[in-house]
Amino acid sequence: LKIEIQQPVLAANNRIADTLEAAFRQHGILAVNLISSPGAGKTTLLEQTIQQLKSCLPLAVIVGDVQTEKDAARLRRQGVPAVQITTQGACHLDAHMVQQVLPRLSLSGLRLLFIENVGNLVCPAAFRLGEGLRVCLLSVTEGHDKPSKYPAVFLAADVLVITKLDLLPYTDFDLGEAVTSAHKLNPRLEVFPLSAKTKEGFAAWVDFIYRRATE
Ligand code: MG
Ligand code: ZN
Questions:
Q1: How many angstroms is it from 41 CA to the middle of ligand 1?
Q2: pLDDT per residue as tens, the chain (215 positions)
Q3: Cβ proximity of 137 and 46 under 8 Å
Q4: What are the phi and psi torsion angles at 138 (to 5°)?
Q5: How far does the centroid of ligand 2 lie from the alpha carbon of residue 123, in Å?
Q6: 26-61 burial, b if ≥16 CB within 10 A, otherwise e?
Q7: Looking at residue 171, what DSSP letter applies?
Q8: What spacing in Å lies between the alpha carbon of 44 and ligand 1's midpoint?
Q9: Ligand (nearest to CA of 120)
Q10: Of the ligands numbered here, which is closest to the C-alpha atom of 91?
Q11: 38-64 pLDDT, tens per residue?
Q12: Which ligand has the nearest atom to the CA of 39?
């Protein structure tokens, strides 16, 4: 079964995404759309990235989940503004949902806005949210064949973060194979293998985001 998303739906989304993109650009904000399957570690990555960046960059978070406000509450504990979108069943964020919650954040003075998408490796790829950077996460506890199984997400991403690197010895995940197949789909992908637990590879990712938000 191939799921076709209706063209008018995507066209309407793109129009709002263009408006968001212009607003982010006007305010000098780097918006980062984080996409992965459920449990790949988006909230954990954000928690630790925010911990390292919040003292040098004014930042905020929008978190999408099907239900509950748990992730936003978790991120608010970092002392940064975090707005939860509960999609009530929808399996992706769209630009309209982001537009609706944006007045709850003060954009002036903000430099970095993380948007944690709903855990899903399929349709978030089709819905732009006005982001300047699209980051896809893949954990080593998933298969290294994910890029070839879900090409759309990897094709539309700027960055691939390979998470839970500390668990690599306990899995059959082939890091080289994952990177090769992702690059075969999308040669311009920047890849950051890292562990939020041991902090291996973490500094390179944080430096990258800092540079992109301040250039
Ligand atoms: Mg989460
Ligand atoms: Zn969806």
A1: 7
A2: 566 678 889 999 999 999 999 999 999 999 999 999 999 999 999 999 999 999 999 999 999 999 999 999 999 999 999 999 999 989 999 999 999 999 999 999 999 999 999 999 999 999 999 999 999 999 999 999 999 999 999 999 999 999 999 999 999 999 999 999 999 999 999 999 999 999 999 999 999 999 999 99
A3: no
A4: -140, 120
A5: 5
A6: eeebbbbbbbbbeebbbbbbbbbbbebbeeebbbbb
A7: S
A8: 8
A9: 2
A10: 2
A11: 999 999 999 999 999 999 999 999 999
A12: 1
How remote is the CA of residue 118 from the centroid of ligand 1, in Å? Answer: 7
pTM: 0.96
Give the sign of the dihedral formed by CA 95, CA 100, CA 103, CA 105: negative
Q: Which of the ligands is closest to the CA of residue 97?
A: 2
What are the tens digits of pLDDT across the range 75-108?
999 999 999 999 998 999 999 999 999 999 999 9
Residue 78: partners with Cβ closer than 8 Å, 6 or more residues away:
47, 50, 51, 54
- Gap from CA of 56 to ligand 1 centroid (Å): 24
Q: How far is the CA of 140 from the centre of ligand 1 (A)?
A: 17
